[in-house]
Every structure is written in structure tokens, then in C-alpha cells.
Write a structure and sequence with these properties.
The chain has 182 residues and is α+β, with helices and mostly antiparallel strands. It has two domains: 2-32; 44-172, no CATH class. Helix content is 31%, strand content 25%. It has a five-stranded antiparallel sheet with strand order 6-7-1-10-11, with no helix packed on it. It has a four-stranded antiparallel sheet with strand order 3-2-8-9. A hairpin with a 2-residue loop joins strand 4 and strand 5. Keywords: Signal. Residues 1-22 form the signal peptide. This is Lipoprotein.
Length: 182
């Protein structure tokens, strides 16, 4: 009986001391969420509107490094969906598109349609992807229109921003490169 009480007491001390050490090592700044943590939680999907030099809306986008010599990010064939449908961009006015995949200034498009790519059992090799880049400098314009959740009628409101020349939105600087692909 004494041994059981002693073990219970020791167990309680261990639990209590672990609990206390957690509280004493937590700073006041850690106990209150920082604005960075709040921004990460509330960040959500961005409303990125863009135009390309040709129609690539049915082709799978990938991201290259800033020199556009290597592919650094690409989707798995199962990742080319958005809200249960193929993640093709949403058409807007004047040739603009609303991104549903993750477009940025280093985006290029592969000569794979969304349908073809989604049927692959695995992503192609990086060498195969490099060979399938449709255009190294496809972007004409990219505009960051804030967070998607802020729009009640996304298409209508983004078309209104297009008509008004994107007030309050940030235009992304696009660099063109004449570097050969590896």
C-alpha cells in the first residue's frame, strides 16, 4: 500500500513538474498569438488574376526557379483539382483568368492538358517536364487581388476590378528570360 501511494505521489510530482515547466518556459509573447500566426491562419487562398501571351488555360502550370532554368514545384496528378473539379483557371473579362492552381511570376505551362495529367499514375520526371514546357515566358500580367474569401460574388467583383483597372490590387513584376533550360 505504501509503495502504491509513493508511486502515485511520484507520478503526480512528475506530471505537475512537467506541466509547470511548460508554463514557465512559455513566454508572454508565445501565449498570445502573434500577428504572423494570425495571418497564417487567416491567410487563405489568394485571388490571383492573370493574362498570358497565348491560351494556356487547359495546360498544367509548374513553377520554375527565378532564372527559369529548373522546375522547382509541380503538382502530383492527383493535385490538379480544385473544389472537386479540374483546377483550370476561371475565365474573366478581357482575356484575364482567375488562378485555381498557384500561378506566380515563375509559372510556365507544360504541354499536358489537365485531363491528360490527371490520368497519369505519377508525375513525369523533371527532365520530361522540361522537355514539355510550352512557353518559358507565358505571363503578360499578374495581379494580386487579395484573399478570395473577401469576395461574395467572386467573378462579378473581379470583373468589376478589371473594368476599373484593378484599384487596390498589387501588380506583380514579371521578368522575361532568354536563358536555356537545363
Amino acid at each position: 500500500m505504501k509503495i502504491c501511494r509513493c508511486l502515485t505521489f511520484i507520478g503526480s510530482l512528475i506530471l505537475f513538474s512537467c506541466h509547470c515547466s511548460k508554463n514557465t518556459t512559455t513566454s508572454a509573447a508565445e501565449s498570445v498569438p502573434s500577428t504572423d500566426n494570425i495571418n497564417q491562419v487567416t491567410r487563405g487562398a489568394k485571388a490571383i488574376v492573370y493574362r498570358t501571351n497565348r491560351d494556356y488555360s487547359n495546360l498544367v502550370p509548374v513553377t520554375m526557379n527565378s532564372e527559369k532554368t529548373k522546375i522547382i514545384s509541380y503538382p502530383a496528378p492527383t493535385d490538379v483539382f480544385y473544389k472537386g473539379k479540374l483546377a483550370k483557371p476561371t475565365p474573366l473579362k478581357n482575356g484575364y483568368l482567375l488562378d485555381n492552381r498557384g500561378i506566380n511570376e515563375n509559372t510556365v505551362f507544360l504541354n499536358y492538358t489537365y485531363e491528360e495529367y490527371s490520368r497519369l499514375t505519377e508525375a513525369p520526371s523533371l527532365q520530361e517536364m522540361i522537355l514539355r514546357v510550352a512557353e518559358k515566358n507565358p505571363m503578360v500580367e499578374i495581379i494580386d487581388c487579395g484573399l478570395r474569401y473577401q469576395y461574395k460574388d467572386e467573378i462579378k467583383e473581379l470583373n468589376a476590378l478589371i473594368d476599373a483597372n484593378f484599384p487596390g490590387c498589387k501588380k506583380v513584376i514579371i521578368k522575361t528570360h532568354s536563358i536555356y533550360l537545363e
